[in-house]
């Protein structure tokens, strides 16, 4: 698996939004009901939806965030295996100020931590996104 980061990808190629999030000075991760691992909030863009609208929808659906600032960080591409087509998305950063209860969805709970999780759902992708966030933000 190969992850690449880009300043910009054609808007029509962006299929996913990933939202690196912080709340009360802690990282925010989600636990899917059918998994034992943790992941960064995010998901697929729906037809006719902008990538930012996708990020806002997914952030609410997966964390319950209702008040936050959202900033585009960069675009990314993932090639799952040699010779496969690259899939693209956008990484956002959200500083969450207020959360409501989780809406009814595939997410069982959120996990707040000062440290990154050891059990990632996507260990070959999401830790690299956090590294890119840190590199770009200087943190």
From TrEMBL:
Classification via Gene3D superfamilies: Nucleoside Triphosphate Pyrophosphohydrolase
Gene Ontology molecular function terms on file: hydrolase activity
InterPro entries (alphabetical): Nudix_hydrolase, NUDIX_hydrolase-like_dom_sf, NUDIX_hydrolase_CS, NUDIX_hydrolase_dom, Nudix_YtkD
CDD domains: NUDIX_RppH
Pfam families, per database record: NUDIX
Protein's UniProt keywords contain Hydrolase: yes
Keywords: Hydrolase
Family membership noted in the UniProt record: Belongs to the Nudix hydrolase family.
Protein name, as recorded: Nucleoside triphosphatase YtkD
């Amino acid at each position: 698996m190969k992850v690449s980061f880009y300043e910009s990808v054609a808007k029509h190629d962006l299929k996913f939004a990933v939202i690196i999030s912080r709340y009360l000075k802690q990282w925010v991760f989600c636990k899917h009901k059918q998994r034992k691992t943790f992941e960064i909030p995010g998901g697929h863009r729906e037809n006719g939806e902008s990538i930012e609208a996708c990020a806002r929808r997914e952030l609410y659906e997966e964390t319950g965030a209702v008040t936050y600032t959202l900033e585009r960080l960069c675009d990314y591409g993932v090639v799952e295996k040699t010779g496969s087509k690259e899939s693209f998305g956008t990484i956002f950063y959200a500083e969450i100020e207020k959360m409501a209860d989780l809406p009814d969805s595939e997410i069982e709970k959120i996990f707040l931590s000062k440290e990154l999780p050891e059990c990632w759902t996507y260990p070959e992708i999401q830790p690299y996104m956090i590294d890119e966030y840190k590199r770009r933000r200087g943190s």
